[in-house]
Amino acid sequence: MRVFLLDALTSDDAIRETIRQTLEAECAARGWDLDTMTLESADIAHCLGCFNCWTRTPGVCIQDDDGRKVLKGMVQSDIVVTVSPVLFGCYSYLMKRAIDRIIGAVLPFFTRVHGETHHPPRYDKTPCLLAIGIMKQHDSEEETVFRELIERNAINGHYSKHIAEILTCDMDGDEIVGRIRESISSLEVAA
Amino acid sequence: MARQAVLLIGSPRWLRSTSYSLGAYLIEKLEHFDCETIHIHKAISDPKMTQDMVRSVNAADLIILSSPLYVDALPAPVLRVFELIASGQREKPDRPQQFVAILNCGFPETKHNNTAMRICRLFAERAGFMWAGGLAMGMGPAIDGRPLAKAGRVGKNARDALSLAADALSKGQSVPEEAIKRMAEPPIPIRLYTMIGNRTWKKMASQYGMADKLKARPFATAE
């Protein structure tokens, strides 16, 4: 089993080590491979909105940087874990810069699903998604929007199962560990 | 004295974008405003331009964000601007500052923009702006960056909606519900739009000799 971690926290975020250590321990205990991309130091250009990843070089972005590794890592994993501060209910800039580069995971064509138009997946197998959102303190409005965003990502990204987990900086370490463990166990069944 | 408006374009395609078509049409219809248009992707690439952009936003009476939808939310550079404006103590004028969002997406249904619009609203409220409404539309590529006045039938709903919005904003009011509803109406049937879209992708790919490789799986492992 492959787990791909996209970490948009920075070295200033105290919660980062707890999250990383927990994920490493959970993966090690199950014999899973964990591949981590630290977005703070990754070389990822902004999406150009050119759609060349659909028409000119299908499935691959024309920009040859770490953005390609984001898409490859996601496509080749069984579980994708994103860890990002939540800002106005959205991912942070660093996380979104990476996520904007993954549209090569779907095909350009339109298809109707449950009365809505979507793009079909490019690959037969799609990973599960654990989206961990970090808030300084709990904010129910932001949490609602973030959960909605992950729901939309899961529909349009065709994730086979998804969990949106909200952690706050005032939580104690045991609670953080417990929440992540629970999410991983839940996804283990689906993946 | 004319009030100040800032139009922020969230598309990397800048003057060739539907975001620009829509935003430019709105500011053209505004009355009693001096307008400045800023290309977000360019502005955040240079510290001096970033500083100037934040200063312009903080001084404006009306801020208009016109942006495409990227992966269910706003493009990353727009979020960077949100982060910059909201961080620290914002220098605010002692008068209300209205914030309006115009969003467009490539899906035919307008509702794909809903989450991004909620993000815009939360930003506006948390950063101390007065949320003056959001206009969203699907089928953005049907306009394809043409000046909205020249977009014919596919641009009619947007023209009507933006004219109504400009009239209200010129009077210091919020975007009326009628404008929001008009903007959201698909200008052509969904089935027609998706049929044309599917053909267009194949046509574009054939220009690169890739028509039969559109479904390639370059990162496939043993599936």
Short structural description:
The complex is a heterodimer of chains A (191) and B (223). Chain A has 191 residues and is α/β, with parallel strands linked by helices. Helices cover 38% and strands 21% of the residues of chain A.
Large-scale geometry of chain A = globular
Compute the number of helices of chain B: 9
What composes the largest sheet of chain B?
A: 5 strands, parallel
User: Based on the structure, what is the oligomeric state of the protein chains?
Assistant: heterodimer
CATH class of the largest domain in chain B: Alpha Beta
- What is the name of the CATH architecture of chain A? 3-Layer(aba) Sandwich
CATH topology of chain A, which one?
Rossmann fold
Helix content of chain A: 25-40%
What best-fitting shape of chain B do the alpha-carbon axes yield?
Answer: globular
User: SSE order of chain A in H/E notation?
Assistant: EHEHHEHEEEHEH
